[in-house]
Amino acid sequence: MLDLITGNEAIAWGARLAQVDYVPIYPITPQTEIVEKLSEWAANGLIRARITKMESEHSMITAAGAAALAGARTFTATSSQGLLYAFEMLYNVSGWRAPFVLANVSRGLAAPLTLLPDHNDALAARDSGFLQFYAETCQEALDSVLIAYRVSESRKVMLPSMVNIDGFYLSFTREKVMIPDELGDFLPPYPIPAISAGNMPSMGPTVLDPSVYSYFKYQMHLAQISALDELKKAISDYEKDFGIKRALIDEYMADDADYVIVMTSSFATMARKAIKFIREKGIKVGLIRPWVLRPFPRDDLLSALAGKRGAAVFDQDISPGFGGALHAEIASSLYGAPDAPRIASFIGGLGGKEPTIEEFEFMIRELISPDLTRRGPVMLWTDRDQRILDKQRSIALRGGVVGR
């Protein structure tokens, strides 16, 4: 079925097609539409899932992990401050080896407060043990949920997944989405039987000996590595069953490119337009977009970057005092690689600030610049941004506080 739906609804459709049994919820902008849609379907008898409103995101994730281990295919969703509120339990449920899917509708973190997206929320959780997917389109949002269930529930993985979409830019954007009529054999029955002490995927949740603790943590790491092969199998089966192609690394006009922009999520669509513009000026530039960041697809990334002269990494996040998290991970992956391209770091899109064609062109010009090695992370900032800042500063200095 082809339908025109929002990114949030695409996420909800993923949970519906997976025939989830349990959905603990706590609404937060801009993900509320996801749980509203699931609640509507449950009320109308279109899904059999039990929807339970919790008192916080912390208890929501706790309930999700417990339900997954009790034999229920589980789904939940959050955003931004809600994800941070749940942070303690992210590490717990992954340590329990509880396979469920959490949708995170990315939103910048306070303070200052914003409702628009960047990736500091999701990237803050990249060491939690969750698999992480970053969708560019509504179609990819749906596909990510289904593939996440398939991989998370593999006995070689048994870890939760986080599917990230950009708030407002994708969550409330309507696009054509191909919705499968049914999943067939793509998603097998939920692998954990009703709760049984002898059947737990993770034994010994409390340990006193550091050797045992180290063993458990390293097993989680090995499970993430195993997830790479499971992802590739799932991607292949997904294309075979539904005719939709996915890849760990998405490439656009990159085959003959000398320089590439590396970035994730929905703002990559803006980069595609800029790339066409830059190519008209005679510079061979392309896009490399990681779809999955955990497990980190290092070999696929190195293959995509092979033969490139330079890579401009666009980070929609900032680690204060250091720079961009995506740039750091890509740079570490390139370390020691023969003929690795030069790499430059750019910070943009914070709080939903849209990058312009001129900013993407600036990134490539800087990448080509001979004095690149003497520069640290560059904050993308336009004259328009400065005018907005000056106006707000002027209002504040005049005492123009809201409510007066």
Descriptive notes:
This protein is of the alpha/beta class and 404 residues long. It has 2 domains: 2-191 and 203-242, Rossmann fold, CATH 3.40.50.970; 249-387, Rossmann fold (3-Layer(aba) Sandwich). The chain has helices at residues 7-17, 32-43, 57-69, 81-85, 87-95, 120-123, 138-152, 210-242, 268-280, 298-305, 325-334, 357-368, 383-397; strands spanning 2-6, 22-25, 50-53, 75-78, 101-106, 131-134, 161-166, 174-178, 249-252, 259-262, 285-290, 292-294, 310-315, 342-347, 378-379. The strands form 4 sheets. The protein has a 6-stranded mixed sheet with strand order 9-11-10-13-14-15, sandwiched between helices. Helix 1 crosses helix 2 and helix 1 packs parallel to helix 7. The termini are far apart.
Provide tags for this entry.
15 strands, five-stranded mixed β-sheet, 404 residues, alpha/beta, Rossmann fold, single chain
Question: What does the secondary structure layout of this molecule look like, with pairings?
Answer:
Blueprint: E1 2-6, H1 7-17, E2 22-25, H2 32-43, E3 50-53, H3 57-69, E4 75-78, H4 81-85, H5 87-95, E5 101-106, H6 120-123, E6 131-134, H7 138-152, E7 161-166, E8 174-178, H8 210-242, E9 249-252, E10 259-262, H9 268-280, E11 285-290, E12 292-294, H10 298-305, E13 310-315, H11 325-334, E14 342-347, H12 357-368, E15 378-379, H13 383-397
Parallel strand pairs: 2-3, 4-5, 5-7, 6-7, 10-11, 10-13, 13-14, 14-15
Antiparallel strand pairs: 1-8, 6-12, 9-11
